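Task card 7
Instruction: Convert sequence to structure tokens.
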Amino acid sequence: DEARRSGNPDLDIHSDWIDYASAGATGPHDLFEAVRRVLDAVLLSRDILDLGLRSSADLTRHTKLAGRIVELRAALRTRLEQEGLRELVVPFEPGAY
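Output:
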């Protein structure tokens, strides 16, 4: 109300402001595919991947991500064993260092 009285917009900053149709998506669930196509077109996909691989996430804030990483590590270890490639990756074992 104060924003409107002072002539400022009173729009909800927490609203979803993305125009999914303009991005070639139908909603947040398929927006990544639209973004990926753009990154491929401007030859930035590899740069973004490299940036992500060199970054770290605050896993205390993103606990679901932390849990998913643990699941993926176990799945990778299982897959490597199935393919006879167990020696390819040495898993981190805290007591081994």
